[in-house]
C-alpha cells in the first residue's frame, strides 16, 4: 500500500518536472547575466546580438557561439568578478561533472524505485565471493552478508514483525550490526540505531521516542540493557533479543544465536519495498534540545552514498577503512554505503584506536580512510613510526579537520587528497571540498549557484533569527560575512528533500519559509559558515543549545536535566568552552547554589 503511494508521489513529481526545469533555467540565466540588474540586461542584449552574429552569420556551432559570446559579455563588464570565474571555472566544471554522475545514479534508482537491499542483491550476483566487510581477523563476503541478512529478515517475519514496525538496534560496531539492519529493511521493519554509549534515562528516551517494539542488543551491552529495563517496564509488549552469549537471568531475552541460524537464507518474498520507505533512524542533537530521531529513507542513504562516491571519485577497486561508530551517519552511512551500493570492500573497527589506525589501514590494504577532526588530532599526537607512511591510503574524507593541523597531517602521513565535507544527518545543506583547499569545508559556485541551491543568509547576532529585507525575504551574505547555511527544499527531488524527524514539531523548527522567493522552503542548518571571494566555505560556529565534544553532539538541555535531578532540582546552565589543543568544546556547568547546599 505504501509503495503504491510512493510511486504515485513520484509520478506527481515527474509531472512537475517541466515547471521545475523552466524555473531552473530562469535561475541559471539570472546567475549568468544578472537579469535583476538593468545594466546587465543591456549587456545581455549585446550578448544576444554577438551570439546571433557568430551562429547565424559566421556559421559557428551553437555551443561555440554561446561560449565566445559569453566571454565577450564578461570582457565588456557583464560580470563584476571576471577574475573569480577564471579561477573557479575548472573547479566548477569538475564538480558539475561529478554532480551529474551522482544525479544519474539517483535517477536510475528512482526509475526502478529501488531499495538498498535490492541494489545490494545486484552486487551479490555480480561478485558473490568478493570480500564485503572486514572486522578484526574475519572477512565476510557479499554472499555471506546477503545470506545472514536474509536469515534476519525471515527470522523476524516469523516472529510477527511487519512493515512499519520500529525496533532498537543497540550494539557495538560489528558486521552483524550492518547485516541485521539490512535484513530488517527487507521486510520493512525500521531499526533505530542507538548510540552504544548511552545509559539509563538517555537510553530509555532513545528507545521510547520512536515507539520501539523490540530491543536488539549485543551481549557486550547486556549490563546497560539490564539497567535501563526498569525504565521501560511501561512499554507494552517490548521484546528483547540478544546477539552473543548472555545470562537470561540478567535480561529475559531471546537468543539470536539460536533463532537466526534456524531461518532460511532465501530472500523474503512477502514485502516489496520502495525507495521512499524508511530505512532506519539516526539520532542527532542537531543544534537544539534533546536527541532527535532523524528519518533516513532509502533515497537519502542512496544520495548521501552517491555524493561521497562520485564527488570523491572513489573507484570500484578502492578499499575503505573506518573506525567511526556505525550508529552515526559518518561511519554507518557515508562509509558503508560505498559497500552496500557500489561494491567497495570496507574494513571496520569496534572502537577507534589512534595507535592502531595506520596498522589497520596496512592490514586491510585500505586506499580510502575516514576521519573526523578529533581523530586526526589524536593520530597526530602519536609518536612517529614507519607505519605512518607505509600505507596505501590515497584519500581521506570526513569532517572537522582544522586548518591549524591540516597541512601537518597531510605532510606527515603522505595523504594525496583530503575530502573535507560539511553536512548533517537530516539536512540537505551538504557540501564537500574537492580540490584540497586547506580549511575549506566545501564551496558554492560563484558563477551558477543555482546548480546546487545552498546559500548563506544573514542572521541576527543576538537572537539567531534570519534578517529579512523589506519584501520579507532573507538576505544572502556577501563574501567575508558569516551567515547561517541553508539548503533549498524541493520535495520532488530526493537530493533536495528534507525528511525531518519522527517528532513533527522538531521538523517544523528546521524549516524556514519565504526564504528567497514567496512560498519557497529551506532547511536551517543551525551552523554559521563564511564564504570567501572564490566561493570556498569555512566553518565559523554552531548556533543553538548544543556543543560538540569528541565527535558527539551534546545537548545542553539534556545535561541540565540530569544535573537538576541529581542536585534536587537546582537550577543550572550548561555550555561549551574551548580547550586549547582540543577539537570542539568541553562541557561546563554554572549551578545556582549560593548557600552551597548541594555541593
TrEMBL record:
It holds the Pfam family AMP-binding. One of its GO terms (molecular function) is long-chain fatty acid transmembrane transporter activity. GO terms for biological process: long-chain fatty acid import into cell. The chain crosses the membrane at residues 45-77. InterPro entries: AMP-binding_CS, AMP-dep_synth/lig_dom, ANL_N_sf. It comes from Argiope bruennichi. GO terms for cellular component: endoplasmic reticulum membrane; plasma membrane. Residues 123-479 form the AMP-dependent synthetase/ligase domain. Keywords: ATP-binding, Ligase, Membrane, Nucleotide-binding, Transmembrane, Transmembrane helix, Transport. It catalyses: a very long-chain fatty acid + ATP + CoA = a very long-chain fatty acyl-CoA + AMP + diphosphate; tetracosanoate + ATP + CoA = tetracosanoyl-CoA + AMP + diphosphate. This is Long-chain-fatty-acid--CoA ligase. Gene3D superfamilies: N-terminal domain of ligase-like. It comes from the Eukaryota.
